[in-house]
Amino acid sequence: MDKQYKIQVQDLHKSYGDNEVLKGISLNVKPNEVVCMIGPSGSGKSTFLRCLNKLEEPNRGHVYVDGYDIADKKTNIDLVRQNIGMVFQHFNLFPNMSVAENIMLAPVQLNKMSKEEARTAALHYLDIVGLKDKADVNPTTLSGGQKQRVAIARALAMKPDVMLFDEPTSALDPEMVGDVLEVMQALAKEGMTMVVVTHEMGFAKRVADRVVFFHDGVIKEQGTPEEIFDHPQQPDTKSFLDKVLNV
Amino acid sequence: MSKHWLRNMLMGLTVAVGIGVGLGHAQPVHAAEPTYTIGTVDSFEPFEIPNNKGTYTGKNPGIEIEMLQQIAKHEGFKYNLKVMSFDATLTALQAGQIDASMGGMSVTDERKATIDFTKSYYDSGVVMAVAQDGPIKSMKDLKGKTVAVKAGTSGAIYAKSIAKKYGFKLKYYKTDNTMWSDVQNGNSAATFDDEPVLRYGIRNGMKLKVITKAVDSQPVAMGVKKGQNQELLQKLNDGITWMEKTGRMQKLLDKYTKGSGTKTDGAAQRTIMGLLKANKGALWDGLVATLELTLVGAALALVFGVVLGVMGIADGKFFPWLSATIIYIFRGMPMIVLAFFIYIGMPSVIGHKVPLFTAGVLTLMLDEGAYVGAIVKGGFKAVDRGQWEAARSLGLPYGKALRKVIMPQGIKIMVPSLVNQFIITLKDTSILSAIGVMELTQTGTVIISRNMEGFKMWLIIGVIYIVIITLLTWLSNYVQRKLA
Q1: Could you tell me if residue B96 is left (phi over 0), alpha (psi between -120 and 50 degrees) or otherwise beta?
Q2: How far apart are CA A136 and CA A123, in angstroms?
Q3: CA A165, CA A187: separation in Å to the nearest integer?
Q4: Minimal Cα distance from A78: which residue of B?
Q5: Whole-number pLDDT of residue B265
Q6: Helix, strand, coil shares of chain A as percentages rounded to 5?
Q7: How many CB atoms lie within 10 A of CB A109?
Q8: Which residues of A touch B484 (CB under 8 A)?
Q9: pLDDT tens digits for range B433-454
C-alpha cells in the first residue's frame, strides 16, 4: 500500500458463478488524477468501478482507498463511502423526495450539516450544475440530463475526494450529453480525483490524464490519451477504437 | 351424552364464553339462608339456554336453570351460578370450587365413584328425527341415504353402530341448527340426537318429527362431590321430589320439549327488525369484539409482517431463509388449525391457559402477519436496486438507507395489498368463532341456537359484515388518495 495513491488496486478478481469478469486487475490512481476507462461492453470496466466502493465484493485482491483496505471487515465501509461520490448510468435519484431533499439527505442523516446548512449547500451545488431553479421540484419531472446533473450535485454535497462515474451519459438523449460532460470537465479542472467509465471518446481525449483500455477482464493497455488514441499498441485496442471512432 | 362434551373439550367449541370467563349472576344474600355455588355449563339446550349475552338471566334459561330457581325458592337457599365448560364443572366439583354441578349430566357408574347424584329428573336417550313431510317412515327407509349427526354426540355414536345394518351413510355437523336445517331441507334423510335436544329444536320451529323411541337411555341428574355437601344434596332431592309430586317438573319439561312450531319468542320478534331489536345488545358486543380483534390483530400482524419483510431482504442467507420459512409455515397452515393449536394445543406445552382473546389475536398476528410479511418483502424488493446502491454509495448505513429511501417507496407499492389484507383480516376473525371467541359470527351461532332463525340471522350478520367492510374500503381509499 502506497500513501501517494488515492486509490490502489492489487490483483483484483471477481467472478459471478463460473464467469470470471475481472481476471486480476491492478491500477493506481493519484490525487487529482482523471482516469477514463474504455472498452467493449462486458469487458469488466463497470464491475471494476463498483468494486472501488464495495458495491461489488471482490473474490480476491485488495482495494485501498485513502489507505483503507475496503475488503477488510474492520473497515467501516460507510465512512469510506462518504469520501467517494458515485454517479450511476440510471441516475438513481430518490423519487420520494424533492431535488433539494435528494441532495440534503446524506449530509443531514450523517450529521455533517444541519438542515439549514444542507439546504444552503444543496442550492450551492445545484447552482454549480446549473439547476438552482429546480430545487423544489420532484426529480421525476426532470429530463435525463437534468437528473444526472442533480445526481452529481448530490454526490458532491458529501464533499468527496474521489468521484466515480459509471457511464454517466449512456442513458441520455444526445442533446443532453453535453451539459453533463461540461459539469464533469469543470470538476476535473478543479482538481477532483475522478474515475470515469465512459463511451465518450471525445471526453476521454479532452479531459483524461490517463486512459485505461479494458478487454475481457484485464487491462490490455493504458497511457495518456495521445498514446491510446493516436498510437495504440495492442491489436484489440486498435480494433475497438476503429469500431467506436468510425461510426 | 358424555361424548357430546368430549367433543366440546376437544374442539373448544364452547358456545357462549370461554372457560376463563367465570360469569355468574349473584343473588342477593340473606344471612338466614345458606348460599351455594353451583357450576353449570355455558350452553346445553334445552337444559341450559344462555341468553344472547351468554348468561342465564333471560326469560327461558332452560330446564335445569328454572328447576334450580324453583327448588331454591322452595327449599330456602340462595346460590351463585358459575358458568364454565362441562369438563370444568367436573374438575371444579372435585376441587371444591363449586358445591354442586349440573349440565345435562348423565349418571354413569364411572362418575358415581366421585360424585353423589341427586334423584334423576329426566331420562335422556337417542331418538331419530326426520323431516315432517318427508318420505322416511322408519329406519328401514334409510338404505342408501345420508344421515346427519353431530360429531362426538351419543346420537353420532349410536348412528354409527347401526349404519351398516341399515345401509346409510353419515354426515357430520358442528352445530345443531345447521344439521337440523339439512334434514328439514331434505339433503339428509334423518338425524340421531339426544331426545331433549331434538325436542327442543322441534318446539322452536324446526319442521322435524321424532319417529323412534329413545334408546341407550341414561338418567340425568345434578351432583355434589362424593361425601360432601350432603345437606345441599338433601335439599335438592327434596326439591326434585316436591316438583315431581306437584306436577311442576312435568310442566317444566313439557315447556321445553313438547309441541312443535310454537317458539319460545313471540312472533313479533321473528321479523328482521324484531330480531335486530331483540338482539341488538349481543350483536353490538359481537361487532365490537370483531373490530377489536381486527384492529389489534392487524396492528400486530403489521409489526410481525414488517419484521418478516425486513428479514426477508437482509444481507446474507440466514435471515432471508428464516423469513421465508416462517412465511411458508403460517401461510401454508389453515387459520383454524393454527387457532386450535394455540388455544388448545399450546396450554399443555407452556403449562398454563392461553386466554381466549389472546389466542385469537395471536392467531391473527401469525397468520395475517405471514401474508403481510410476503407483501412487505415483495414491496421492498420491487424498489429498484439502484435506489439501494445510490443510498449506500452516499455513505448511508443499511438501516438509514432502508428507513429513509427504500421504505417510503416500498410502502407506496405495498399499500393497496396491505389494505386488502386488512379487509381479509376482518373477515378472517370469523374463523376464530371455532375456538369460541364471542365475535360477530359466534354471536350469530349463539343467537341462532336459541331462536332457530338461521336464515334471517345469517342474513343480518352478513349485511353487518358488508357494511363494515364497505366503510373500511371507503376509509382506505381515502387514505390511499392522501398518500398518493
Answers
A1: left
A2: 10
A3: 12
A4: B395
A5: 53
A6: 40, 25, 35
A7: 19
A8: none
A9: 888 788 999 888 878 876 778 8
Domain boundaries, given as residue ranges, for chain A: 7-246
Go through chain A and tell me how many residues it has. Answer: 247
Task: Compute the distance between CA of residue B35 and CA of residue A197 in angstroms, rounded to an integer.
Answer: 93
- Whose cell is 357430520? That residue is B172
Q: Residue for cell digits 421504505?
A: B407
* Entry pTM: 0.67
Q: What is the pLDDT of residues B252-266, one digit of tens each?
A: 988 888 765 445 555
Cβ distance of A105 and B404 shorter than 8 Å: yes
- C-beta atoms of A92 and B405 within 8 A: no
**Cβ–Cβ < 8 Å for B13, B178:** no
Q: Among B233, B229, B220, B238, which Cα is nearest to B73's?
A: B238
Determine phi and psi for B256, rounding to 5 degrees.
-100, -20
Per-residue pLDDT at B135: 87
Q: Tell me the pLDDT tens digit for each residue of B329-340.
A: 999 999 999 998
- Rounded Cα–Cα distance for residues A94 and B384 (Å): 10
Tell whether the model's pLDDT for residue A234 goes beyond 50.
Answer: yes
CB A28 within 8 A of CB A8: yes
**Is residue A163's pLDDT more than 90?**
yes
**Regarding predicted confidence, which is higher, B31 or A148?**
A148
- Using CA atoms, how far apart are residues A34 and A165, in angstroms rounded to an integer? 11
The CATH superfamily assigned to A7-246 is P-loop containing nucleotide triphosphate hydrolases (3.40.50.300)
pLDDT above 70 for A63: yes
Joined together, the cell numbers standing for residue B196 give 331433549
- A96 with B394: Cβ contact below 8 A: no
Q: Distance between CA A142 and CA A140 in Å, rounded?
A: 6
Mind telling me how many Å the CA of A215 is from chain B's nearest CA? 25
Return all residues near B188 (Cβ < 8 A) that are at least 6 apart: B145, B146, B147, B148, B171, B179, B182
Q: What is the pLDDT of residues A78-122, one digit of tens each?
A: 999 999 999 999 999 999 999 999 999 999 999 999 999 999 999
> Please, which pLDDT band fits residue B268 given cuts at 50, 70 and 90?
low
The count of other CB atoms within 10 Å of the CB of residue B109 is 6
Contact by Cβ (8 Å): B41, B231: no
Chain A residue with the nearest C-alpha to that of B386: A92
Residue B139 clears pLDDT 70, i.e. is over it:
yes
Give the C-alpha separation, B202 to B192, whole Å: 13
The CA angle B116-B118-B124, to the nearest 5 degrees, is 110
Q: Do A92 and B390 touch (CB under 8 A)?
A: yes
- Bond preceding residue B46 cis, omega within 30 of 0: yes
| Cβ neighbours of residue B358 closer than 8 Å, sequence gap 6 or more | none
Helices (H), B279-406: 280-312, 318-332, 335-340, 346-350, 356-382, 385-393, 398-400
N- to C-terminal Cα distance for chain B?
Answer: 60
Q: Please tell me the number of Cα atoms within 13 Å of B238 on its side-chain side.
A: 12
pLDDT tens digits along B105-122? 888 888 899 999 999 998
Q: Cα(first)–Cα(last) distance of chain A, in Å?
A: 42
Rounded-to-integer distance, Cα A134 and Cα B249, Å: 91
* Chain B residue set in contact with A, beta carbons under 8 Å: 384, 386-387, 389-397, 400, 404-405, 408-409, 412
**Scanning every residue of chain B, which has its alpha carbon at the shortest distance from the alpha carbon of A88?**
B390
Which of B315, B385, B394, B483 is the best substitution to test chain A (most A C-beta atoms within 10 A)? B394
Residue B232 has pLDDT above 90, yes or no: yes
d(CA B240, CA A97): 81
Distance CA A187, CA A85 (A): 12
Instruction: Using the Cα atoms of residue B473, residue B474, residue B477 and residue B482 in order, give the sign of their dihedral.
Output: negative
Angle at B450 between CA B55 and CA B104, to 5 degrees: 70
